[in-house]
Specification:
Elements (H helix, E strand, L loop, with lengths): L7 H5 L8 H5 L11 E9 L20 H6 L2 E6 L2 E2 L22 E2 L5 H6 L3 E3 L9 H15 L2 E3 L6 E5 L2 E9 L5 E2 L3 H12 L4 E7 L16 E2 L2 E2 L3 H11 L3 E5 L7 E4 L2 E4 L4 E3 L12 E9 L5 E12 L3 E4 L4 H14 L5 E3 L2 E3 L22
Parallel strand pairs: 1-2, 1-16, 2-5, 3-4, 5-6, 8-9, 8-10, 10-13, 13-15
Antiparallel strand pairs: 1-17, 7-8, 11-12, 14-15, 17-18, 18-19, 20-21
Length: about 375
C-alpha cells in the first residue's frame, strides 16, 4: 500500500536548480535521464457536491481503481470542483449554488481522503470548476490537498516537481480559464513547458480542453467552443507542448473518452472521460464509459508500454470494471479515425502503437520505489 507523506506537497514545491544552460538550449533530449517509471491517469473526479456527498468521506469512491493507482509510481487525476465550505458560488449567492447550465461543485475538505486512500499523488487544478467558489474556495482546496499530502498543479506559471528516488517528474496544467496556465497562448505553453524541462528529467502536461458531451468523442484540429467558451485546440496544444519538452500529455474536459496518439515517441491521451463523481456526472452509454490509463515511460520520457483498464460508471457515478471492454473498443476506433498511423489502439488491455513505431531498447535499472516508500 502506498502512503503519500503529508510533507510531499511541500517537498514538491521546492525550487530545483536548473540544468546547465547548454543542455537546456539543446532541447528536451539533452536533459539528464532519470529512471523508468509508471504513471496512472484517470480523468475527471468530483469528490462530492450539493447534488450528493459520498459516504465515509469518499473513501470508497475510487475503490475499483485503487489497486492500479497504488501500483503506479505516480497516480494522477483531474480534480473537478473545490474542497471546503462556505463562500460565494459562481452560480450566484452562497452555498453550493447551481441551476440551469451553471454548476458549482464543493465537497467537504474531509473528502480529500478519497484521493489519499486510493493512491492519488497529484491532481490537475487547471479546469473550469477549480474556481467555483472563488479565491477562497481555491485556497481551501489547496490547503486540504496539502494536509493530505496530495500534490497539485495548474495555476498560472505553476510547475510541480515530484521527486521519485531516481527521477524528477515535473507537472504543469493548462486550461482556458484565467486561474490556470493558458491553453490558447502557445507561446506561453512552450515557455512554461520549457521551464519545467529545465527542472526535471520528465515533464507531464495536464490539459483540460474541448467541447462536452456524448457527441464529442472525436478530437478536432481547431478551437472547440462549449457554453460560449473557447476551450482551445487540443491538438495544437499537445503538439506545442511536446515541441517544448513535454514527454506525456494527458487530458480531461469533454466528459467522454477520446483517442490516444503518439507524437515522436511521446504519448498524448486527449481525454479519459469521467473517472468518478457522485450524482453529478452523466452515466449514459457514452458518458458512463470510462477508463484508467497506465503508462510506462523510459528514462528520457519516451513511451515504452501502457495499458487501458475499461470501466463503467454505475449507480451514483462510481467506477466499476467493465469486462466487455467498451472503453478499449471506443478508444481504438476513434484513435484510428482521428490520428491514422499515429493512433494507438487497445488490445487485451494493452496499448498497441502503430506498426512503424520503434520502442527504445530496454534499460537496465533499479525500479524506483513508490513516492513516500521507505
Amino acid at each position: 500500500m502506498k502512503r503519500v507523506p503529508t510533507s510531499l506537497a511541500l517537498a514538491a514545491a521546492l525550487a530545483f536548480a536548473a540544468f546547465p544552460a547548454a543542455a537546456a538550449a539543446a532541447g528536451q533530449r539533452q536533459r539528464p535521464a532519470g529512471q523508468p517509471f509508471t504513471l496512472a491517469w484517470g480523468g475527471d473526479v468530483t469528490l462530492g457536491s450539493s447534488y450528493g456527498n459520498p459516504p465515509d468521506a469518499a473513501r470508497g469512491l475510487l475503490a475499483a481503481v485503487t489497486a492500479p493507482l497504488r501500483a503506479a509510481d505516480v497516480g494522477a487525476v483531474n480534480l473537478e470542483g473545490t474542497l471546503g465550505s462556505g463562500g460565494s458560488s459562481k452560480c450566484g449567492g452562497g452555498g453550493s449554488g447551481g441551476g440551469g447550465n451553471c454548476f458549482a461543485f464543493q465537497a467537504p475538505a474531509a473528502n480529500v481522503a478519497g484521493l489519499r486512500v486510493a493512491g492519488v499523488d497529484v491532481v490537475n487544478l487547471a479546469n473550469n470548476h477549480a474556481f467555483d467558489f472563488g479565491a477562497s474556495g481555491q485556497a481551501q482546496t489547496i490547503g486540504a490537498l496539502a494536509d493530505a499530502g496530495v500534490a497539485y498543479s495548474g495555476r498560472p506559471g505553476e510547475i510541480r516537481v515530484l521527486r521519485l528516488p531516481h527521477t524528477r517528474v515535473a507537472f504543469v496544467g493548462f486550461s482556458a480559464y484565467p486561474w490556470s496556465a493558458p491553453i490558447g497562448d502557445l507561446g506561453a505553453v512552450r515557455a512554461l513547458v520549457g521551464a519545467a524541462a529545465r527542472q526535471a528529467n520528465v515533464v507531464v502536461a495536464f490539459v483540460h480542453a474541448g467541447a462536452e458531451g456524448s457527441g464529442q468523442i472525436h478530437t478536432p484540429n481547431h478551437d472547440e467552443i462549449a457554453f460560449g467558451e473557447n476551450r482551445g485546440n487540443p491538438r495544437a496544444f499537445a503538439h506545442a507542448a511536446i515541441d517544448a519538452g513535454a514527454d506525456l500529455v494527458v487530458g480531461s474536459g469533454p466528459h467522454v473518452l477520446r483517442g490516444i496518439e503518439l507524437d515522436r515517441g511521446r504519448l498524448i491521451a486527449y481525454s479519459l472521460g469521467n473517472l468518478a463523481g457522485y450524482r453529478n456526472f452523466g452515466i449514459g452509454p457514452v458518458t458512463g464509459t470510462s477508463g484508467l490509463l497506465s503508462v510506462h515511460l523510459g528514462p528520457d520520457g519516451t513511451f515504452m508500454s501502457g495499458g487501458l483498464r475499461s470501466l463503467r460508471l454505475s449507480g451514483a457515478g462510481i467506477p466499476a470494471a467493465d469486462l466487455g471492454g467498451a472503453a478499449a473498443h471506443l478508444v481504438s476506433s476513434v484513435s484510428r479515425a482521428d490520428f491514422g498511423a499515429h493512433g494507438v489502439t487497445v488490445a487485451g488491455g494493452r496499448l498497441i502503437p502503430h506498426a512503424g513505431f520503434r520502442r527504445a531498447p530496454p534499460f537496465a535499472h533499479i525500479r524506483p520505489r513508490r513516492i513516500g516508500e521507505r
